[in-house]
Amino acid sequence: MNKTKKKILEAALQLFNTYGLPNVSQRKISDHLGISPGNLTYHFKKKENIEEALYFDLVNWISEEFRQMGEKEVSLQNLITFVDSFFVTIYTYRFVYLDIVHLMRNNDVISAHYKQLIISRKLQFLRMIEQFIDSGLFREAELPDEYEMLYKRIQIILDFYLSAEEITENTIGYRPMGNHTLLFMHSIYPYLTLKGKKQFQEILPLYE
Amino acid sequence: MNKTKKKILEAALQLFNTYGLPNVSQRKISDHLGISPGNLTYHFKKKENIEEALYFDLVNWISEEFRQMGEKEVSLQNLITFVDSFFVTIYTYRFVYLDIVHLMRNNDVISAHYKQLIISRKLQFLRMIEQFIDSGLFREAELPDEYEMLYKRIQIILDFYLSAEEITENTIGYRPMGNHTLLFMHSIYPYLTLKGKKQFQEILPLYE
DNA sequence: TTAAAATTAGTACGTTTGTACTAATTTTTA
DNA sequence: TAAAAATTAGTACAAACGTACTAATTTTAA
User: Fold this and answer.
1) Which of A50, A81, B9, B13 is most buried, judging by how many CB atoms fall within 10 Å of its CB?
2) Which residue range or ranges hold the HTH tetR-type domain (chains A, B) (predicted)?
């Protein structure tokens, strides 16, 4: 990729993350970089194009993480390692998550893509749960659609954990590695079998 | 309260809910009402003042709901009824939740108030759980801070359920009464005792 | 080395933003 | 009913917005 284009994306990411997407204009980005607004428009005709470039960067990173997890065996430890790396990526592109509603409302390309994405994510999750049940670590569902509902909650937590931190914490900025993984682990704990809970409690102390 | 002031708040609420807080200017509100911008500035000098008036309306409604719940006995049915009414209120003031990060970032008054609020909410929740444990409906915690973590997740779901719907659903606008209560119920189900689960399964069919 | 292409700077346009100000009108009060 | 207060309309302004345009410069390629 072009050198300037890369620099623009880096600056935009930093500014979006710091001040929030609606608070950062194209001029602020070019000023921040010390380049002319015309130069910026040359590389990205619209602000939406910058958003999209960053969004698809994020998506590619996450796809790569999913691919890597798919290669490993199904285990609690691997799941947790995956969630951990997932949250690091989320944090790197946190403006996407902190302003996700605004982003989707004002950018049809991203909105359409994301809506497709979460459908396949859900299927992936349910397949994984099935494998966990087969391996005797997760219990069978006790309620209709119990694991579909679990996924729904986990999705909300993945998408909005940073937002929740942002509006809760008194500290300015974020602690890069908070308790997100611990929160995720607690979400799945009640669905484990005795065998699963035992394994879980061996791993847990490492995250507290 | 003044008649015009009331009309301004109603219009602002509707426009904020529909188009999103950052997409609605003071002029759009006055245009929508057919009053002059000068008139609007007379009643609310700054846009933030409108946000705050609506936010504190919301807070008052919720306080009233908490008060009403506090009067009733501790039971699953009463809890669910409460969550239901809670979500209706959230939906009425949905712009607060859909743009909550942007709102908090740009409005110090609301931000400060909210951060105080959730502290007392957490304590209320934990007290309630204790009562549920005493009544034999919830099990004891199996992990350190297990119910603190449950609360954290429930808080995220309460605050961001509408956002999750907004970015997930293909329908324009919202279905006023979605599956939020069902989602909440699934959150607490795994923590119930056998007695609690039995009670739960009697109530569940009413919500599907 | 010279022509073409890509990149950059600089400027400018029409809107919209938040907000301030004055003057007219309506309502309230004495 | 007259004076005072509250409310409303209308206008204006500087700043910022997204974006378009042209001209200069640099890089690439023939």
Assistant:
1) A50
2) 2-62
- Around Cβ A128, how many Cβ atoms within 10 Å? 18
- What is the structure's pLDDT at A169? 77
Q: What are phi and psi of A46, to 5 degrees?
A: -125, 155
C-alpha closest to that of B154 among A132, A203, A187, A142: A187
CATH of the domain at A4: 1.10.10.60
- pLDDT exceeds 90 at position B205: no
Nucleotides of D under 7 A from a protein CB: 7-12, 16-23
- In this predicted model, what pLDDT tens digit does every residue of B15-53 receive, in sequence order? 999 999 999 999 999 999 999 999 999 999 999 999 999
Residues 29-88 of B with CB under 7 A from strand D: 34-39, 41-43
For A97, which residue in chain B has the nearest alpha carbon? Answer: B101
Tokens encoding A108: 């049809």
CA A131 to chain centre: 23
- Asked whether residue B122 falls in the same domain as residue B186, the answer is yes
**CA of residue B52 to C1' of nucleotide C30, angstroms:** 37
Model confidence at A171, pLDDT cuts 50, 70, 90, reads: low
User: Which chain C positions have some atom within 7 A of a protein CB?
Assistant: 7-12, 16-23
Phi, psi (5° rounding) for residue B53? -60, -45
Beta-carbon contacts of A72 under 8 Å, excluding residues fewer than 6 positions away, are: A78
Average pLDDT, chain A: 92
Boundaries of domain holding B28: 1-45
Q: Is B114 at the interface with chain A, CB within 8 A?
A: yes
Closest CA to A125 of A89, A58, A74, A179: A74
> Would the pLDDT of B2 be above 90?
no
pLDDT at position B178 = 55
How far is Cα A21 from Cα A19, in angstroms, rounded to an integer?
A: 7
Do B93 and B27 share a structural domain?
no
